[in-house]
């Protein structure tokens, strides 16, 4: 796998979305190496399940990292794990407390959303040949639109401004570090960092409110939840968090 992504960084003033730009850039230029796209502003930033990502201009880290490699499609959740942990590693370095991964790949601080990750894989047959990891990390923004889950930022949490280039470089560093670790180690760390793990919580399943306890996420990215019916397993979009 080519991990020299930090050697080619393309910075844009504004773009519809960094993931969308990266995907088009790959197709139009037949790019083989890894690279990075960053932007000051996204006109149509996206989160999971077509949610909109809210970001003020030049306030936050908006980045897509493209990896060139070959990987079996059955292991595609590895990059959700690695990228989520890379963000947690930054927060730990900054001594930000109460940071957790909300499955599959939102990052929360004290139940408030600070980052979201969106991954797009380019696939031939059963093989991934490129993966685009898109990250929106709230850094210096202080006012957010009202969403179901409140948002926060590094500025709000630490009461100081941060240099976006430093945050970018730290993310690329922690991402490379996590890529170099054994996936079993990353898998354990991911599960140990799960939001609401081993806690009685309320979820929406098939349009109904149900109580359950998150037990783990397996290597395929499926969530195991203990309910009154025993252990049930869910894919993305099959269950919603209500707390």
Secondary structure blueprint with pairings:
Layout: E1 9-15, H1 18-29, E2 35-42, E3 61-72, H2 78-93, E4 99-102, E5 106-109, E6 112-124, E7 127-137, H3 154-158, H4 164-180, H5 183-192, E8 200-205, E9 208-217, E10 223-227, E11 230-234, E12 240-241
Parallel strand pairs: 1-2
Antiparallel strand pairs: 2-3, 3-7, 4-5, 5-6, 6-7, 8-9, 8-12, 9-10, 10-11
Please provide a written account of the structure.
The protein is α+β, with helices and mostly antiparallel strands. The protein contains five helices and twelve strands. The strands form two sheets. A seven-stranded mixed beta sheet has the order 1-2-3-7-6-5-4. The longest helix has 17 residues, at 164-180. The mean pLDDT is 92.
């Amino acid at each position: 796998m080519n991990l020299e992504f930090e050697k080619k960084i393309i910075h844009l003033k504004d773009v519809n979305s960094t993931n969308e730009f990266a995907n088009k850039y790959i197709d139009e230029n037949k790019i083989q190496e890894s690279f990075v796209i960053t932007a000051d502003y996204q006109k149509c930033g996206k989160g999971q399940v077509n949610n909109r990502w809210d970001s003020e201009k030049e306030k936050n880290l908006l980045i897509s990292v493209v990896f060139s490699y070959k990987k079996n499609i059955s292991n595609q959740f590895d990059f959700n794990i690695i990228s989520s942990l890379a963000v947690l590693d930054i927060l730990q370095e900054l001594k930000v407390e109460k940071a957790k991964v909300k499955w599959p790949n939102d990052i929360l601080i004290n139940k408030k959303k600070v980052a979201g990750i969106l991954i797009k894989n380019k696939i031939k047959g059963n093989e991934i040949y490129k993966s685009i990891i898109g990250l929106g990390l709230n850094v210096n923004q202080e006012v957010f639109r009202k969403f179901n889950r409140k948002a926060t930022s590094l500025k709000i949490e630490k009461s100081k401004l941060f240099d976006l280039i430093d945050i970018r470089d730290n993310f690329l560093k922690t991402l490379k570090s996590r890529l170099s670790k054994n996936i079993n180690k990353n898998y354990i760390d991911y599960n140990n960092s799960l939001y609401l793990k081993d806690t009685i919580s309320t979820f929406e399943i098939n349009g109904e409110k149900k109580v359950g306890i998150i037990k783990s996420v397996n290597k395929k990215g499926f969530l195991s939840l203990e309910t009154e019916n025993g252990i049930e397993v869910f894919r993305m979009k099959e269950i919603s968090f209500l707390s």
